[in-house]
Specification:
The termini are far apart. 47% of the residues lie in helices and 13% in strands. The protein is an alpha/beta fold and 451 residues long. The strands form 4 sheets. Strands 9-8-7-6-10-11-12 form a 7-stranded parallel β-sheet, with helices on both faces. A 3-stranded antiparallel β-sheet has the order 1-3-2.
């Protein structure tokens, strides 16, 4: 499809400098980044989690800025037809498109022009994330804590998907809003359930927040329920955005991406400065998922110890209990922030070690050099394990990671046998249960465990 579209919801005007950057196809420009994110948004509903194949399938896709006296328009060529109805772009997809434009332009503007953000410091990274979220109007002052972050896999069964909808429904009935990674599967299900529940309660202001990043968005295009989309520059800033704006987290079954999120979260909560900080975390699944969570629990206990296991609860086959438990936990969060005068809309008190904030580039050298041994603080071990899973995610679904694995072979992961053996067992179970990629293709591992 070819179309010329006007802004929907945001980003109606651009400076000449911003226009020139978005047209610049060199490494210094923003054209390639915006084209990649725009294609991901327009590809909504098409079932593929291979960003490399998506880019190749739509290699003729193009998007250009058109300056006009009344503002900007986007000239789109050879876009996925699923983004249109009777020749008109779907309104929600148009909103997502201009949200991507807004976030890319703002991130570049802040990073290039501002001297306030030292991205080599922890405070600098957090402040940058705050400004990105504020510019996207994600941060709402004057409201009680009510945002539940839902994590889980994009490649899940229909039974698992239906369970996430039931949990989302119970959350919505209790006036809670949903934030996910914005893609399909366990990211879409809770939003769909909450949408119906909000309608039952005549809640016309339900929030369905989607947080993504350029490397993953092509593999996990924003689902159509998302009404507040924001794109952070990398996976580390995306993960920090989740824990800064969320008031509680529910984790559904998933694969390596979900394991990465779990290790990120537990690594932060295990930091000595966060020991007394209330942060409700629930692992939720149906009866058929009980063995999955027992496996995850064993892995966490073996790798990180009992203290890590104390930071979450496992609730099986009971969506009502999940919703009640997370709401009670959020009430404790609200009380704690009132006492300590912390904002409801952004968790400033949470201490995050710089190792969780600095972008990890999943090259073969970096993956092989990960410090996976026990002679280090447990929250640092969690950070390094998180990076191992992040590299596997890149090799599975991200364009750059897929190309590296195709060229140089699987990533090698080295470390202590006591850590690598349970890690290998967990990864093999993900393969056996088709949790690495969407069904339809034989999965070839992007990694190799080296004892």
């Amino acid at each position: 499809m070819n179309a010329r579209v006007t802004p929907e919801g945001t980003m109606e005007v651009l400076s000449r400098h911003e226009v020139s950057l978005l047209k610049d196809r060199s490494k210094k420009g923003l054209y390639d980044l915006f084209r990649q994110c725009a294609l991901a948004v327009l590809n909504c509903g098409n079932e593929s989690d291979d960003s490399k194949s998506i880019m190749e399938e739509y290699k003729d896709f193009d998007i250009k800025l058109v300056n006009q006296p009344r503002g900007i328009k986007l000239q789109i060529t050879n876009a996925p037809s699923s983004a249109f109805v009777d020749g008109e772009m779907i309104k929600g997809i148009k909103e997502h498109l201009f949200s991507a434009l807004r976030d890319i332009v703002h991130a570049n503007s802040v990073l290039v022009k501002s001297s306030e953000f030292d991205l080599n410091s922890s405070d600098g990274v957090t402040n940058f994330i705050f400004h990105q979220l504020r510019n996207a109007q994600i941060l709402e002052a004057g409201t009680q804590p009510n945002i539940v972050v839902c994590w889980g896999g994009h490649s899940i069964s229909r039974m698992e998907y239906n369970f996430t909808k039931k949990v989302g429904h119970e959350l919505g009935l209790r006036g809670l809003n949903i934030c996910t990674g914005c893609g399909p599967g366990a990211m879409k299900g809770p939003m769909k359930g909450a949408t119906i529940a909000h309608s039952k309660q005549r809640n016309c202001n339900g929030r369905y927040i989607g947080i993504s990043e350029p490397g993953i968005i092509a593999a996990e295009s924003p689902n159509p329920i998302v009404n507040e989309l924001t794109i952070l520059p990398d996976i580390e800033k995306r993960l920090e955005a989740f824990v800064r704006i969320g008031h509680g987290i529910i984790i559904f079954p998933g694969g390596v991406g979900t394991a990465e999120e779990i290790l990120y979260l537990l690594g932060i909560l295990l930091h000595p400065a966060n020991q007394k900080l209330p942060f409700p975390v629930i692992f939720a699944g149906s009866k058929e998922n009980e063995s999955y969570f027992k496996m995850i629990d064993r892995f966490i206990g073996g790798a990180l110890g009992e203290e890590a296991q104390k930071r979450y609860k496992i609730i099986i086959d009971d969506p009502v209990s999940v919703a009640k438990e997370i709401k009670t936990g959020i009430e404790e969060v609200a009380q704690y922030r009132r006492v300590h005068r912390d904002a409801y809309y952004f968790n400033w008190l949470l201490k995050i070690d710089p190792l969780f904030q600095q972008p990890f580039q999943p090259t073969h050298e970096n993956m092989a050099n990960l410090q996976l041994h026990r002679e280090q603080p447990v929250h640092i071990l969690a950070a390094n394990l998180r990076r191992a899973f992040s590299g596997i995610v890149a090799g599975n679904v991200k364009d750059d990671g897929i190309r590296r694995v195709e060229k140089f072979g699987p990533f090698e992961i080295h470390g202590d046998k006591t850590i690598l053996d349970p890690l290998e067992g967990l990864l093999e179970s993900f393969i056996h249960e088709n949790r690495m990629k969407l069904p339809g293709k034989v999965y070839t591992p992007s990694y190799r465990i080296v004892n």
